[in-house]
Design a protein that fits this description.
Layout: H1 6-11, H2 52-110, H3 116-131, E1 134-137, E2 149-157, E3 164-170, E4 172-175, E5 178-181, E6 183-190, H4 193-209
Parallel strand pairs: 2-6
Antiparallel strand pairs: 1-4, 3-6, 4-5
Amino acid sequence: MTSPNSGSEHEGLVIRDNRRIDPETGEVRQGAGKATESPSPAAAPAAAPADEGVAAQLAERTADLQRLQAEYSNYRKRVERDRVTVREQAVASVLAELLPVLDDIGRARDHGELTGGFAKVSEALDSAVGKLGLSAYGAKGDVFDPMVHEALMHSYSADVTEPTCVEILQPGYRIGDRILRPARVAVAEPQEPSERSASDQDGAGAAAAEPEDN
């Protein structure tokens, strides 16, 4: 038996044919399949610009690293410079203690007493101090330089045109450009104009006083 309400139950039922192809004509239906098409995905949002705070921190850290690298480089240079200075000072201190010995050897050489085994020891010592950078200077005829010479004697001479070392009393020693001991010398300067004119007048007077030969 059919229920009296069965007709009313099917009245609200709606059947839709969503087939894209019409089964009767075989043609594509207009607007078919739109209900079943999946919506297109939303476009991805554009990438946001870099955070200004992060960029500022990155720039600050980069500057810190560059500054630290520069400070370290300067530190290395300063340490190397100090190391060289300390070495030079140590070498200069040792060589300064040997200068009296070198003076004695020089005097013995000047007097012809540097012979035999003593001569070989002298040559070995000269070679050793030479390798450490020590060199002697000062020769007769050098122009006097108060920066490298110490004048122990002073005189005037008509044979020079400028202050000149006319005698080396004690040689000087240097290490590179550093003066370890100045050369001690006797210095002669040109005669003063008044002295030259007086000597010229004395010579002229002596010549005039000589009797002429008859």
